[in-house]
Amino acid sequence: MTRHTIPAQATARNAALDDAHIGHIHGALGTIHQQDHGPRTSWRHRFRTLLAILGPGLIVMVGDNDAGAFGTYTQAGQNYGTALLWTLLLLVPVLYVNQEMVLRLGAVTGVGHARLILERFGRFWGAFSIVDLFLLNALTIVTEFIGIALALDYLGVSKELGVALSAVAIIAAVSTGNFRRFERFALVLCVGSLLLVPIALMAHPPVVHIARDMVLPQLPTGGKLSDVMLLIIAIVGTTIAPWQLFFQQSYVVDKRIPPRFIKYERLDLWLGIVLVIIGAVAMMAFTAATFAGKPEFGNFTDAGAVAAGLDKYVGRVPGLLFAVALIDASIIGACAVSLSTAYAIGDVLSLKHSLHRKPGDAKGFYAVYFGLIVLAAGLVLTPHVPLGLLTNAVQTLAGVLLPSATVFLLLLCNDEAVLGPWANTRLMNLFTGAVIALLVMLSIILTASVLFPATTNATVILSILGGGTLVALLTAVATGAIGSRGNRTAKKKVSRDTWRMPPLNELPAATLSRASRIWMAVLRGYLVIAGGLVLIRIAQLTIAGQG
Questions:
Q1: Are the beta carbons of 53 and 264 closer than 8 angstroms?
Q2: Average pLDDT rounded to a whole number, residues 526-546
Q3: N or C: which end of the chain has fewer CB within 10 A?
Q4: By the 8 A CB rule, do 243 and 77 touch?
Q5: Which of 155, 222, 179, 197 is nearest to 23 (CA)?
């Protein structure tokens, strides 16, 4: 396949794979010229710069509050009240650290996440990252259309017509060849996520209980430990998903954000995290208040039933707002997840892959995007497709694959040739190492519960968590040691604002320590075994259901 070449004068010390990724920043709320290197001295100039940069962090975070998140957060509220709100607060630093690392990679390297994995870790991991991303994202997009179908059913709209029109809107949103136009569409959907706030106000949840449960970790009284743990894992999986890493890095590249604006992109990310937490807290709070003392408490079914419950106990308006918010979340989720796949495949195969290009000028990129949307919509409209099983498969596979995505992210952010003075600090490595170990433990619990549901009881779960604590400490120390090289580079007299990763063919070969190679071998074995067993289990359940 022929690689799209970039003029030499435009690519000096630049690794961009598509010349559409070089040029002015045309954001939804402003423009920054490529030659604008001046300092931002006044608050007005800094605010206008922030408006132009806004987008990647907001879209990836609000896109994360998608149909799956609606189901997970409302399940937590309906079944356990506000007792699990503390999990959201604990996830805030994890969200920020993960997404800050990928935005830094995007701005400094000019290359997508999947391509960096391929170049630095070889064909096996490059192919693995694309295959698992494609599979998981395809299933995730199906859940977005399930969410749309549930909302339409509550609204009394034909599912066939509504899903078809939604698919057309999702396709049309990216088909204009105008990056700014898509971003404006996406930011409107981000604002739409705030519809959840008036629902919470109308449901009158106890503010004192919400404040207490946000900061006081506890397990729900009377809840079965195995069920509670699985829900906590689902909250982690729906809040921190592999597609987010690939999407934000590629979107930062496509928006042409250079290193000197990283601090503004960090603010954008924080705004997105605030919106995510507001939405998640609102959903847990108003479902807890709505169903407390009612027959439906502890008996969650799906998001459609939540809309009906709001209608029944709070009023028609909250039910309508929830259904509209669910459609809004499903559309932005489908857009972001599909784009993350199209960007990744375009990066790895060296295709033209940019929203600055029209479909006729980037056929492969748009073919992947359109194909995923059509496939997902078609599956939802196909009779007898096990949609509930597909939803469970998404949560399970995300739990299995998330640790590997975070491992590669950490290794890339300690690669001196890739990030130079922008490499991770030792403190960030220690924190991320602890997060990886925790994700591995949660992944093992989730995998065990799917494969061996009858034997994965409280004793097994506590044994995994207890035994994994020591592993977590050792892993955090080991990964923290990786950061020493990047720190030494950061101390050199190098301008961080102008340092960019050189073209990929100029990078020295990646070097991994023996400990890193051992951990990657263990990770490969775990992913092959756990992923394979989960897929077998899903196939068995599908066959049993059809029988």
A1: yes
A2: 64
A3: C
A4: no
A5: 179
Torsion 65-71-75-81 (CA) sign: positive
Residue whose structure tokens are 């030499």: 8
Handedness of CA 424, 426, 430, 433 (dihedral sign): positive
**Tens digits of residue pLDDT in 5-54:** 444 444 446 788 889 999 999 999 999 998 888 888 899 999 999 999 99
Residue of 93, 79, 387, 394 lying closest to 234 (CA atoms)? 394
Whether pTM exceeds 0.85: yes
The rounded Cα 329 to chain-centroid distance in angstroms is 13
In single-letter form, the type of residue at position 21 comes to: H
pLDDT at residue 537 in the model: 62
- Band (pLDDT 50/70/90 cuts) for residue 318 is very high
CA distances (Å), 54 to each of 387, 486, 522, in order? Answer: 35, 28, 39
Helical H segments across 382-421, by residue range: 387-412, 416-419
Residues facing 26 on adjacent strands: 31
Residue type at 317? V
Which residue, among 281, 307, 315, has the nearest Cα to 81 in the 3D structure?
A: 281
Q: How many Cβ atoms sit within 10 Å of the Cβ of residue 404?
A: 24
Tokens linked to 374:
């059509």
> Which helix (H) or strand (E) is 502 found in, with range?
none
Q: Which is nearest to 481 in space by CA: 519, 452, 530?
A: 519
Evaluated on CA atoms 273, 274, 276, 277, the torsion sign reads positive
Radius of gyration of the chain (CA): 23
- Residue 303, pLDDT > 70, answer yes
% of residues, the chain, pLDDT over 70: 82
Calculate ∠ Cα 397-189-383, nearest 5°.
Answer: 50
Q: Which two tokens stand for residue 262?
A: 């990283």
Please report, for residues 92, 200, 217, 291, 441, the alpha-carbon distance to residue 85 in angstroms, rounded to integers and kept in the order given: 12, 15, 8, 16, 21
CA dist 212 and 127 (Å) reads: 46
Contact yes or no for 438/472 (Cβ under 8 A): yes
- DSSP-assigned letters across all residues of 287-314: HHHHHTTSTTTT----HHHHHHHHHHHT
CA 449, CA 455: separation in Å to the nearest integer?
Answer: 8
Which amino acid, residue 517? R
Q: What's at 112, amino acid-wise?
A: G
Which uninterrupted H or E stretch holds 27? strand 25-27
306-344 in b/e burial notation, b at 16+ Cβ within 10 A? bbbbbbebbeeebbbbbbebbbbbbbbbbbbbbbbbbbb
Structure tokens at 286: 């108003």
Count CB neighbours of 51 within 10 A.
16
